[in-house]
Write a structure and sequence with these properties.
Oligomer: single chain
CATH topology: Metallo-beta-lactamase, Chain A
CATH class: Alpha Beta
CATH architecture: 4-Layer Sandwich
Radius of gyration: 16 Å
């Protein structure tokens, strides 16, 4: 699926997750003479991601930035590989950087029981070879124009402490897992801090987000979404 919003061409890459857990979106955006990739999927479908990048004409050297909306394995699983193979810098918020550096999806979150903590690395495929240290730490309000995209970083904690959105000047908003649209638009089913998540949603509204590109499900117009009280 491809959309053209203003001068940015957006290619949606939808990748299946392991163990019938659904699917996840990555977004490849034409950014000036290069490309910017938002999220990378999980490592179990790396070849499918590479095929989609090749079909879009994204070659090694043309990927300027790999922007990660948060630290979960289904969004960061191919980041280290893509940096090595395509040369793009990895960027994410410092609040979730520890997840990528130490493979701990619960760093900065409420802790689950020990069994879940032990099993997640096995099921996620986010083993030590996939861990990485980001090249850039993104902060709230940061301008991405140096990478060819008229957009800024918006801090949106709730799903995780270091969750961010990428908001373009035309109102396209890549929100990671704050919102989803599997069956209908809603807050993500896995929210660590509901109060912070609702505040983040209002923040996006106030900053002019119009079309939401979620981590899971189809894009939707934010004006049509009303959060239940």
């Amino acid at each position: 699926m491809e959309n053209k919003m203003m001068q940015n061409e957006i290619k949606i890459i939808n990748l299946p997750l392991p163990f019938w857990m659904g699917s996840v979106n990555c977004y490849l955006i034409q950014a000036g003479a290069g490309r910017l990739l938002i999220d990378t999927g999980s490592s179990n479908n790396r070849q499918a991601l590479v095929r989609e990048l090749e079909r879009a004409g994204c070659q090694p050297g043309s990927l300027r930035l790999i922007a990660l909306t948060h630290g979960d394995f289904d969004h960061t699983g191919n980041a280290a590989y893509l940096r090595q193979a395509y040369g793009g810098k990895i960027a994410m918020h410092p609040g979730d950087a520890g997840m990528a550096e130490r493979g701990d999806m619960f760093e900065g979150r409420k802790k689950p029981n020990r069994l879940i903590r032990a099993l997640l690395p096995v099921f996620s495929g986010f083993g030590k070879s996939k861990w990485f240290k980001p090249d850039l730490l993104l902060e709230d309000g940061q301008d991405l124009s140096e990478f060819g995209l008229d957009a800024r970083v918006i801090s949106i904690p709730g799903h995780s402490l270091g969750s961010i959105a990428i908001l373009t000047a035309s109102g396209d908003c890549f929100c990671g897992d704050l919102l989803e649209n599997r069956k209908e638009p809603t807050l993500n089913s896995l929210i660590d801090d509901p109060v912070a998540a609702r505040a983040s949603l209002q923040k996006l509204r106030s900053m002019g987000a119009s079309v939401i590109y979620p981590g899971h499900g189809r894009p939707f117009a934010l004006e049509l979404f009303q959060l239940a009280s």
